[in-house]
Task: inverse folding
């Protein structure tokens, strides 16, 4: 049992640790397994690589915008599924959960075909934030069901007596929602938002199919760099992304803990 | 896992194919969209069959508990 645990941990984390360690290796090739001394010059190089920084900015912009929409849509979906009964509700619930279970490649392909056949593909010469439109729409599509699930799980614990008490004291439906339900949903909203953000930040397949040559995100950029050759620069850039994801996950766990105590 | 694309592509160095890599090639380099769509629908059918089996097992289990 213990050996299984140790082996699992090694298989899970050894590649990541090797990646981080070799981002500090003073050697020209990333595939080089010989330690040649400590350096941070590849971090400098990664920060001075304009196309890499541009891809990173694109990734962050897409993640922020799609998270906002994903949380909004997810919250509305969660409230509807939790509050109301309507015909064909199980079918609707299944359809909401569908993007979570279907293979990513199918989602990417279908979105690519959808944009191409409906002519919704954003032309390449559109000004910057709008040129990311297709990717943002794709990211909202696949991340809002996750946000909806998290928010709905939070709403499941809501004590209806609180809303009834507020209504007895003369609160309107809107006031009940704003002052009672919304604050209660807050940890779920934050957790769902962070989940959507990290999902959007490191998604590769769907972005790969919906991005054009002028709209490159960080994972897509790293992919094309790896295709060319593996350099310690990629290790450095990936380390930065890993650290960012770790911080966000830590924050998400923090919020989950607050949720447990309330 | 069934539809994973990146892992076989990077670790297989383009020599080992999983279904997702074949689909990707139809769309990106071979330019045979109908064939690629057909294959991704095949992948979807497999996913749906697995989901249906799961639902069936769960129904049987809860049926056995109640009856």
Result:
């Amino acid at each position: 049992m213990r050996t299984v645990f140790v082996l699992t941990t090694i298989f899970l984390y050894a590649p990541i640790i090797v990646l981080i360690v070799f981002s500090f290796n003073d050697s020209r090739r990333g595939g080089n397994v010989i330690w040649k001394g400590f350096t941070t010059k590849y971090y400098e190089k990664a920060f001075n690589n304009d196309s890499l920084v541009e891809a990173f900015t694109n990734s962050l912009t897409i993640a922020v915008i799609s998270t906002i929409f994903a949380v909004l849509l997810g919250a509305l979906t969660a409230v509807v599924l939790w509050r109301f009964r309507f015909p064909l509700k199980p079918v609707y619930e299944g359809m909401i959960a569908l993007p979570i279970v279907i293979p990513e490649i199918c989602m990417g392909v279908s979105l690519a075909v959808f944009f191409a056949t409906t002519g919704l593909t954003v032309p390449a010469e559109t000004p910057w934030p709008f040129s990311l439109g297709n990717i943002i729409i794709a990211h909202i599509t696949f991340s809002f069901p996750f946000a909806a699930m998290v928010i709905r799980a939070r709403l499941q614990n809501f004590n209806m007596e609180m809303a009834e008490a507020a209504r007895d004291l003369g609160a309107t439906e809107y006031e009940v929602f704003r002052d009672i339900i919304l604050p209660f949903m807050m940890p779920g909203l934050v957790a769902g938002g962070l989940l959507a953000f990290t999902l959007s930040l490191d998604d590769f397949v769907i972005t790969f199919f919906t991005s054009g040559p002028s709209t490159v995100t960080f994972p897509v950029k790293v992919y094309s760099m790896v295709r060319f050759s593996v350099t310690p620069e990629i290790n450095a850039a990936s380390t930065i992304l890993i650290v960012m994801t770790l911080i966000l996950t830590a924050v998400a766990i923090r919020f989950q803990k607050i949720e447990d105590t309330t | 896992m069934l539809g994973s694309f990146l892992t076989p592509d990077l670790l297989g160095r383009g020599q080992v194919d999983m279904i997702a890599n074949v689909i990707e090639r139809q769309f990106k380099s071979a330019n045979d969209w109908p064939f690629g769509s057909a294959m991704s629908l095949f992948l979807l059918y497999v996913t749906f069959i697995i989901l249906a089996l799961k639902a069936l097992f769960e129904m049987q289990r809860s049926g056995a508990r109640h009856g």
